[in-house]
């Protein structure tokens, strides 16, 4: 499942990455928005797997068969989020109105000298995590991500803002080193963001229910939380229809406990709780779902 997504992402992203970068930096905001429509049309016509994944997801979340226009809106929302991501990291965040809700859940923990784990997802923009760190030099914010999984996009974002690379903890490194970096950041009262909705190829997973079907969530984020003992806050950065963003921070767990004798059962409980909150936010802004692959493994076309 994850390998399929990785292959599709790398297959056609080179020219698209360069085009998006040009739009964000060298074209007026209005013109850039207009030029997203040819990108949307490209995905509708050429990228069959993404188009079909969008159709299956929209049918699941809405309860009826989506039109081609619905699928186009979904893809266009994704393209818009990428353009905004580039603008955000290049220091042009003022192009978008961003409303932030629930920062007290993070600041309270940091105020008591504790680091915080932020669990995010491919629902809306996770870039808000790095944006917090880049705009607040008094906060240490790092993001756990597989740097090689989407190397072209990562390289472009790093070129836009060199500080962005320093904020990454590379999940592709040896696991002990990764955990040490997370622990050190948390011990300094820092924030570590983790995408908790999409497993990497070969990663251990746990089943959960989402939108009426079974999905596979990565076990890693829950194990990291249990080992570090850090409080967990969820983050959702949702792009609204009017082009503004609402970024929500919501408390999830003061501490995730996984008992030695019942690890699978305990992880399952936390995975189901995460999936429930993810589903609630999906229903608030369904076009923000950016997992364009067969996310429900048992789903039929």
Number of strands: 9
Mean pLDDT: 84
End-to-end separation in angstroms reads 15 Å
**Radius of gyration, Cα only, in angstroms?**
19 Å
Number of continuous helical runs: 12
Which class do the helix and strand fractions yield? Answer: alpha/beta
Strands ordered across the widest β-sheet: 1-9-8-2-5-3-4
Q: Main beta sheet: strand number and arrangement?
A: 7 strands, mixed
The ordered string of helix (H) and strand (E) elements is HHHHHEHEHEHHEHEEEHEEH
Detail the poorly predicted runs.
1-7
Q: Which shape, going by the Cα principal axes? A: globular
Tell me the strand percentage band. Answer: 15-25%
**Helical content (DSSP H or I, runs of 4+):** 40-55%
Give a written overview of the molecule.
- The longest helix is centred in the N-terminal third of the chain and has 22 residues.
- The strands form 2 sheets. The chain has a 7-stranded mixed sheet, with helices on both faces.
- It has 301 residues and is α/β, with parallel strands linked by helices.
- It has 12 helices and 9 strands.
- The two termini are 15 Å apart.
